[in-house]
Design a protein that fits this description.
Length: 148
């Protein structure tokens, strides 16, 4: 018999120690981050929090949707709403990041690309059903930052 611990027992101890170490590190970092203040004051923070992303509505610009395309169009319209919500969340969590063009480059630009792709899929769903695809929807892809 070996004098050391069985291999399985040694692995359990190592894994438990690693998990415990990671947990302790996460608690320490979380506690340190919770106490941070950017020093901007309440007025500045409320101004930043009031900024949201505003995008033109696509649903109101659509002609009569063929019944065969209704489910796909509805899915893509819901996706447009989800994209805006995700961009607003990113806007809220990224305060103070990047330079002067951060919001345009990291949030609004990619959002416009995602929306353009989704709008293209809406147009394709019309075409697949033999209907005339709505025109001019590409202009609805761009969004802007608004203060509320």
């Amino acid at each position: 018999m070996s004098r050391g611990l069985p291999l399985l027992h040694r692995r359990r101890i190592l894994v438990s120690g690693a998990i415990g170490g990671i947990t302790c590190a996460a608690v320490v970092v979380g506690a340190a981050m919770a106490g941070q203040d950017d020093g901007s004051g309440d007025a500045n923070a409320s101004t930043k929090a009031a900024q949201t992303i505003s995008c033109p509505a696509v649903a109101g610009s659509l002609p009569e949707i063929p019944a065969e395309a209704r489910a796909e169009v509805d899915r893509n319209l819901a996706l447009l709403d989800t994209q805006i919500a995700e961009a607003n969340k990113r806007l809220g969590t990224s305060q103070g990041e990047g330079g002067p063009n951060f919001v345009q480059n990291a949030i609004l630009g990619p959002l416009k690309d995602k929306r353009a792709s989704t709008i293209d899929r809406i147009e394709l769903s019309f075409s697949r059903q033999g209907s005339t695809a709505p025109s001019g929807l590409d202009a609805l892809a761009g969004c802007s930052l608004t203060s509320g």
